[in-house]
Specification:
Layout: E1 7-10, E2 16-20, H1 45-56, E3 59-63, H2 76-82, H3 84-101, E4 104-112, E5 118-122, H4 138-153, E6 158-161, H5 187-194, E7 199-207, H6 208-211, H7 215-232, E8 256-262, E9 265-271, E10 277-283, E11 288-293, E12 307-312, E13 316-328, H8 337-342, E14 345-357, E15 366-376, E16 379-391, E17 403-406, E18 411-414, E19 420-423, E20 429-430, E21 440-444, E22 451-455
Parallel strand pairs: 2-3, 2-4, 4-7, 5-6
Antiparallel strand pairs: 1-3, 5-7, 8-9, 8-16, 9-10, 10-11, 11-13, 12-13, 13-14, 14-15, 15-16, 17-18, 18-19, 20-21, 21-22
Helix pairs in contact: 1-7, 2-3, 3-5, 4-7
Amino acid sequence: MPPSARLTVVPGDAPLVLVAPHGGRRDAERRPWAGGHLRMNDLHTAALTAELAARTGAAALINEAQDRNDVDLNRVSDANQHAPGFLERLAELVDGAVRRHGHATLLALHGWNVVQPVVDLGLGCLPGGNQRSAAVSPAFAARALPCLLEQYAARGIGATVGARYPARHRENLLQLFTPRYAGDSRPLVRALAARAPLVDAVQLELGIALRWPGAWRSRFLDACAAALPALAAAPEPASVPPERTPAAEPPPPVPRRLEFAGAELSGLLGLDAGRTGRLLLFPNDGGLVLFTGERLGLEPPGAAGRLSLEPSAGGGLAVRYDGPLLRFPDTTPFLDLETGLARAHLVQGEVDLRFTAAHAQQAGGEFGAVTGSVALDGVRQSVVAHAFAEEGAPTGPWPRLRAALDLGASSVATDGTSRWRRHGPRSVRPTHRSPTSPWTSTWPAPGGSGSWRARSTVCP
C-alpha cells in the first residue's frame, strides 16, 4: 500500500492545521525490537490529533499506520522521495486555510517519552537564537505563543520553548516553514517553502501523560482550545517578542538511588546529575508502575509531576511524588519498548516514602528501611520494606553485588566491589571479594561457639 493511502485527512474551517507524522505503529514481527536501531513511533498522537481537530475545527493530516522506520514523514527528504502524497495533502490543507483566512497556523504533534505532563514547543531555532530562522513570525512569538504557554501553565502542564526539541534539524518538517528551503530544487519542497511567509508553525513534543487517554490529555485539549483565539488571530504588524531572561540554573543534583523490597510493594528510584529520574514500583499483585522524567529541578512554576529525592538527617532520604504514573500489566515492557508502552495505561500516583539508614551514612551507600505510603488512583497502601540507598556515581564493574546480614547486636554489609563493612563489635573476614565470581566469607558466631559462613553465586 503506498504511504499516501495510509493517511487520514480531516477537513476543517479554522486557520489551524494539525499534523501527526509519527502516529503509526511498528510491526513487531517484521521489525523485532531486538534487531536494534529502531525508532519509537509517537504512540497516541494519531487519536489525539483527531480529537484536537474536532475540538478546534482544525484541518488535520494524520498518519495512523505508517511506521516511521519504513518512511519518516517528519523528514523532508524521506517524505519527498518516498511519500510525496503526504507533502501534497499538507500543501492542500495549508492552502485551504490561507484562502479562507489569509494565513495559517500549523501544529505538528509528536511524542516525548517521559511520563511527566510536559510539552516542549519547537520553533525551528534555538531559544533566543536568530528569529529570522524561526518557523513563526515575531508577531506570533509575541502574542500567540505566550497565550498558549499561559493556558498550559494554568492546568499544571510544564511547558517550555525549545528546551528539549527545538525542531532545528534541517530535515525536520517544520523547517519547510523557515527560510531554509526557499528556492529548493525539488518542486514539492519548494512549493511548500513558498507558503512559509503565510504560516506560523510550531512543533509540540508531548509527554506520555498528555498523549495517553485520561485527565491529563483532557487538560491539554482544554488548554489548546482556550488558546485558539490567539492561535487563529489574523497577523498583526510585526512586533518584538518579549525578552525572556533565562533564570540561572540551580547546580546539578547529587546522584542518588534507592532500592527497597517489602511484602506488599517493592521498588527502585534514582536521580542522576543530568537531571533525569525514574521511579519503578512492583506491586505484589504483579505488573509494573513507572515514572520517568527529564530536566528535573528545572520545571516551570506550577508544573505537576515532580519527583523529589532529598537527604534527611542521619543518612536518610525523603521521597515524594504526586502526579501521573504509567502502569504495565507485566514486568517485561522493555523487551520491546513500543509494544510495551502501547499496553500501558495511566494512573494517578502519590508517593511518600522515608528511608532510615541502619547506621551512619558511609561512602558508597547504606542499608536500612523504608516506610511510608503509595497511593495509586486513590487506593493507598502502607509500605514497610528493607532498603539500600547510595549517592554519587555507581562504583565497581557490572554486575554489582549488595548483601546485608543482621547478626543481632551487629550487622555486616558489602557492595561486592572490595570488602565487607562491619557495623558493631563482631569481626568479619572475607575470603573472596571478586564482584564477577562467587565469594565465601566466614566470621565468629554470636557467643563464640563455631562460625557462620556466607556464600554467593553470580548470575550471568
